[in-house]
Structure formats: C-alpha cells, structure tokens
Structures
1.
Amino acid sequence: VQLQASGGGLVQAGGSLRLICTASTSTFESLTVAWFRQAPGKEREPVAVVNRWGVTRRYADSVKGRFTISRDVDKNTAYLQMNSLNPEDTAVYFCAGSWKGFDDATQENDYEYWGQGTQVTVSS
C-alpha cells in the first residue's frame, strides 16, 4: 500500500487546513490510520488515529477539540481537518497505516505504511 499525503501549506494563526491521505489500493480499508507530525528538532509524534471503520478516534491532548480525523473507505482516503491552528502546530505531517487494531496501534513502530509527509507552517 502506498500512501500520499497532501494539503499542507502556509496559514496564519487561527486558520484552518485539511490534509488528505490517499492510498493506492483498497487494502487501506483494513488498516488503522493515523496522522503523525514532526516539528524541527523534535521526534515524530502521533496526532490522531482512526479505526478501520472510521468510528473510533483518538487524539493527542494538544489537538483535541481543534483537529478531526476521518476516512472515506470508498475513496481509499483519510483526512485531517485542522482548525484554530497555532504556530506550535508547525511541522511535517505524515499519514500512516497499521495492520494492528486501534487499541494496539499507538506508536510509530506499530505502523507499516507511511506517506511522504506534507509541510504545515502556521505564522503568528
């Protein structure tokens, strides 16, 4: 499965962006999907996770109430809607897929498939 992330860009604080993760095959529908991000000088961290049915979600505390992860099984696509962005959200964002179930896919090493990353820059 190949993943491609897009939708990043430059936005002012308080603005919104929607990231898109497109998968190459329908195998994507069987995977737990997550968005990670990596800021300069920092380790990659999980931002949001959604189960294979798109029903159960988990968020990092820093983005709760501002970000929403979703997926469209028919389109082999996942999304990250990001609202009320602030400069601390500046990072490269990656989508990832895991064969592990939602409760077990908690860390970077749990994910087998990765997109190439898309840059999000939030100006103050």
2.
Amino acid sequence: QVQLVESGGGSVQTGGSLRLSCAASGGTFSNYAMGWFRQAPGKEREFVASISRSGQTTDFTDSVKDRFAISKDNAKNTGYLQMNSLKPEDTAVYYCAIRPGLALPRRPTEYGYWGQGTQVTVSS
C-alpha cells in the first residue's frame, strides 16, 4: 500500500519561500507521476503543479508559474514543491498525490494516492 507524507508547511510573510516535501513509501516512486494540489477554506481542491514519472515533464497552473518549482528524486522516493514569492492567496492546505502512468492530469480524481496535507499560511 502506497503512503504519502507531506512536510514543510508553515507560516510566512508575503514574498517568503517554503519547500514542501512528499515522502512516499510502499511503492516504486519512479513508476508514478506526482501532483500537488491545494484547498483553501470554503473552496474546492485545485491543481497546482505536476511532474512526470521521470521528472522531465512538468505542468503548472497559471497563478504559480514563475514562482513555484516541482521536482522529484526517485532515488529518495521524495517529491518537492518549491514555493517562492508567496502571496496571501497561496494560503491553503497543500496535498501531494501520485498516479501510475504517463499522463499528467489536472483533475484530483485522476490521482489515486494522497497525503494528509500540510498547511501553508501566507500573511500580508
């Protein structure tokens, strides 16, 4: 059974940075594409970024392009979301998720394994 554990969330001021980590166990990480999603209070879970199994292909939602970076280290079974120039509207619970295969979908329902989430709070 694949398990994911996120870490690295916290509280920062506008313009600050955080790096989220997603540690995977129970599966071969290189077989999975990874996505990061976020959910703010009262809102639906939304796509943030994704990365292919090999790490060579990435996708970002427009609001985080040029500010966030996604990566994965298959040898360490860990994925990352580097978040720079954070804004108050980035405040949310952030989740990592993985799915087998080559596709990089943006819909949360396309991902079968999820972490528990980590809170990111950006104050102005």
3.
Amino acid sequence: QVQIQESGGGLVQAGESLRLSCIVSGLTLMYRNMGWFRRAPGKEREGVSCISPYGSTEYYRDSVKGRFTISRDNAKNTLYLQMNSLKPEDTAMYYCAPASWVSEALCRTESPYWGQGTQVTVSS
C-alpha cells in the first residue's frame, strides 16, 4: 500500500521561509522522478518543482525559480522543498507525487498516488 505524507506547511508572512517534507512508503523513490505540485483555491493543479531519481535534472516553474529548491534523500524515501522569499501567490495546498516526466522545461504527473497535502499560506 502506497502512502504519501506531506508536512511542513504553515502560515507565514511574505518573505519568510518554509521547508516541506514528503515521506513515501510502499514505493522505492530511488527509481522514480518525484515532484511537488500545488493547488490554489479556484485554480488548476500546477507543477512547482520536480527532480529526477538521482537529482541530475530539476524542474522549477518560472514563478519559483531562484526561491525554491527541491531535494531528495533516497535512503530515507523522502522529498523536500525549501521555499524562501515566500509570496502571497505561493498560497496553496502542496502535494508531492511521482512524476512521469521531468526535464528542465517540463514536469508532468500521472500519479494515482497522492497524500493529503500540506497547506502553505503566505500573508502580505
């Protein structure tokens, strides 16, 4: 049984930082592309950042480049997202999931596995 558990969200002020973590069980992360995705109220889900199995390829959506950093610890089956200089427009529920495709220009997921997400709220 696959379980995905995201944590680390919270309510912060603009300019502050958060570090999200995602622990996965039932899947071996070291063979998989992984990614962080978010959904804001009334909006479609969007890819935020994705990473290839050994970290050689990373994707960041334009709006987070230079502020967010994705990383992974395959030994711990854990994915991270360091978010600095947070903006109100980063407010969303954040999810991690396996990604079906990762390049520097694109991240795509068709994952049937999703966790409950972790809420990030940035006040201005």
